[in-house]
Design goal:
mainly alpha; about 55% helix
Length: about 170
């Protein structure tokens, strides 16, 4: 091997490592794969806006204006929240959206399940959307399954203990 070839091989390996690092970093910060969906984020923002509104009802237009959520997307989200029996609406000049129960009783977990679906990362670890894994012959012996159940339980514990009121009151502000 020629000395120059060794240096080129080292340089190539370093370049490959840089590309690998950048690629892996891009995956971690990829905006196409958020921790929660934009729809979930907007649902929470809308619910906090309703909770912070001092009058009985607030219009979709007012929510959109105050939260900077596109009105068409907001209307879809509000419809889903209404179908999920979180909020309701009244038509007319004194109409708008309001809670069906106290926002103190509505957890982030309730909204997450309604908007984004299962809290578990995989179906075999889900409480409400369970399905066995097709590629796992023995769920009981699967260490990944048990780890993902633990993650689900800890995530669920946190999401169930944070209410819309907690968020609207700034309970977690630093």
């Amino acid at each position: 091997m020629i000395e120059g070839d060794k240096n080129n091989d080292d340089k190539t390996n370093i370049d490959k490592a840089k590309v690998n690092f950048v690629f892996n970093l891009d995956i971690l910060i990829d905006k196409k794969r958020p921790m929660i969906s934009k729809k979930m984020k907007y649902a929470l923002k809308a619910l906090v806006e309703i909770a912070n509104h001092k009058e009985d009802h607030i219009s979709a237009g007012r929510i959109a204006e105050n939260t900077k959520i596109p009105i068409k997307f907001l209307e879809q989200i509000l419809t889903e929240l209404r179908k999920g029996r979180i909020i309701n609406s009244r038509k007319g000049s004194f109409g708008g959206y309001y809670f069906l129960k106290s926002p103190t009783l509505i957890s982030i977990a309730d909204i997450y399940r309604l908007i984004d679906g299962p809290i578990a990362w995989v179906s075999c670890a889900s409480l409400n959307f369970y399905e066995p894994c097709q590629d796992c012959p023995n769920e009981i012996a699967c260490n990944l399954h048990h780890a993902l159940i633990h993650i689900r339980n800890e995530t669920l514990k946190t999401l169930e203990h944070i209410s819309i009121t907690d968020v609207s009151n700034g309970k977690f502000n630093v």
